[in-house]
Design brief:
The structure is a single chain. The chain is an alpha+beta fold and 490 residues long. The chain has a domain of 161 residues: Bactericidal permeability-increasing protein, domain 1 (Super Roll), CATH 3.15.10. Helix content is 21%, strand content 49%. The chain has eight helices and 24 strands. The strands form four sheets. It has a 15-stranded mixed sheet that branches. Strand 17 and strand 18 form a beta hairpin. The N terminus is likely disordered.
Length: 490
């Protein structure tokens, strides 16, 4: 469905899981939950509907012969008061026998703004016979552009309805000249156009009811209750959307194209490393109203990252750095091996990174050292930047270190801290660019049972990262354009 497919692609990163327990004298492990504002995202979708089938139905079912007139004893000239100076008299009512036929040409459907027009070119031939018994009669021809202006609305129960206003103008008003005055028959036309209006209204109502708007919404509502795979590995990333309500913000008509301004309010979340549960299914709610001036989707995505995802990243960075010796004052050229990387939250916005280290110096008087070293730091980002850095770094170790001073010298060396910092101080621009490319490809041609949807990410902004016991939290805001086209009528 238009909204579910588009919104799913916007669920960007992150997850929540269990961090490793502290070991070997590491800092206490925090358990504080991730608390973030439950910001509802607004997904605006323009659903385009081709009204060619409505025009075809009207052309097929509105009869060519609109009406036939045969009314003897009709009033052709009304009685009038005549002032003869001395006397005031009343002229007689002149009766006649009116007959005639009115036909239509090719029907046209068009629209502009919030008005949909059904236009019928009308031609009529009307004759007055036995006019007051004076002469057999005259024949008049007329032509008109009959226009029915329709106003649409989408009811809370998803029924697409219309109200109709009849309007027309005579391009050549039918009438004859008699006894110095013009006799016209527009009142006859007014009366006969009423059943034509009712027939057009009946056909329009039937064809609008055939538009599967509610079925489309129900399909999208069902699809919106789901968990999406955004990245299968390195790391695994899921997104979850929990819909809250659908909205309707009016419509626009251009030619025979009707655009319904729809929207979905939903809670969006993303998870790295831990697959979330699917949200509980709820029934399709009544339709709410949406602002007409909401052309784009405004999405708020809380990124929740599992600390376990960081462990292989740091392990890879330290293994790569260990391929070169560490040069440490007073300890010479040091070869080190790093194993059993652990990462978890320690509270107060800090995280701990632990590693089992074995170190050997090229200086004969320095004994081999081994033990677990812990680095504690505060992760920081600036709003709008994907650059993560760490501040307030402290180093601690286990109580059974072999070569304690040697290991602390290694842990405090620029080479060691730079390796960890480089692993954690990642510029996520590349990751975001790759993920955005995946999203763009996923949105390129999603096809539902009833709709085709196109969506484009226009902007992506990140907030400031925060560390909790249960994981890292990073707010992400996205702006999206979503267009959808109804494939067919039922």
């Amino acid at each position: 469905m238009m909204i579910a497919g588009a919104s799913a692609a916007l669920l960007l990163l992150a997850g929540c899981g269990n961090a490793a327990d502290p070991a070997g004298g590491g800092p206490p492990r925090a358990t504080d939950p991730i608390i973030f504002p439950k910001e509802t995202s607004q997904v605006a979708v323009d659903l385009k509907v081709d009204l060619a089938q409505l025009e075809a139905a009207l052309e097929r079912e509105v009869p060519r012969k609109l009406w036939q007139i045969d009314r003897p004893g009709s009033e052709c000239v009304a009685s009038k008061k005549v002032d003869l100076e001395l006397f005031k008299i009343k002229s007689p009512r002149i009766e006649c026998h009116i007959i005639g036929t009115v036909t239509r040409g090719k029907l046209r459907l068009s629209g502009k703004g919030e008005s949909l027009f059904v236009t019928l070119p009308v031609r009529g031939t009307i004759a007055a016979r036995d006019v007051a018994g004076i002469f057999k009669g005259e024949t008049a021809t007329g032509a008109a552009e009959v226009t029915l202006a329709l106003t649409l609305d989408l009811a809370p129960d998803w029924r697409l309805m219309s109200t109709t206003r009849l309007d027309y103008r005579w391009t050549r008003e039918p009438g004859i000249d008699f006894m110095g005055q013009r006799i016209t028959f527009t009142s006859e036309a007014d009366r006969e156009l009423r059943p034509v209006k009712r027939e057009v209204e009946r056909i329009v109502a039937r064809e609008l009811a055939r538009l599967p708007v509610r079925d489309t919404a129900a399909e999208g509502w069902k699809e919106a209750h789901r968990v999406f795979v955004l990245n299968r590995k390195n790391p695994a990333v899921w997104g979850r959307m929990t819909p809250e309500r659908f909205r309707f913000g009016g419509y626009a008509v251009e030619g025979r194209a009707l655009t319904l301004r729809l929207g979905l309010d939903a809670l969006l979340e993303t998870f790295v490393g831990t697959k979330p549960e699917r949200p509980a299914m709820s029934d399709l709610p009544a339709l709410a109203r949406r602002e007409k001036s909401l052309p784009l989707s405004d999405l708020h995505v809380p990124v929740i990252a599992d600390y376990a995802v960081l462990e292989p990243v740091i392990a890879e960075a330290l293994a790569k750095r260990a391929q070169r010796p560490f040069v440490i004052p007073d300890y010479g050229s040091v070869t080190a091996r790093f194993e059993e990387i652990r990462v978890y939250g320690t509270g107060e916005g800090r995280i701990a990174v632990g590693a089992q280290i074995s170190a050997t110096s090229d200086m004969a008087m320095i004994d081999k050292a081994s033990g677990r070293i812990w680095l504690s730091a505060r992760p920081l980002t600036e709003a709008g930047s994907r650059m993560v850095r760490f501040a307030d770094v402290t180093i601690t170790g286990s109580t059974d270190l072999v070569g304690e001073e040697f290991l602390f010298a290694l842990a405090n060396s620029p080479g060691f801290q730079d390796a960890i910092t480089a692993a954690l101080t990642q510029n996520f621009e590349k990751d975001f660019a790759e993920l955005r490319g995946k999203i763009d490809r996923a949105l390129a041609a999603p096809r539902g049972r009833l709709t085709d949807t196109r969506a484009t990410i226009l902007s992506l902004q990140t907030g400031e990262i925060r560390a909790h016991g249960q994981g890292l939290y990073l707010p992400v805001d996205l702006v999206l354009r979503v267009d959808s086209r109804l494939q067919r009528l039922n």
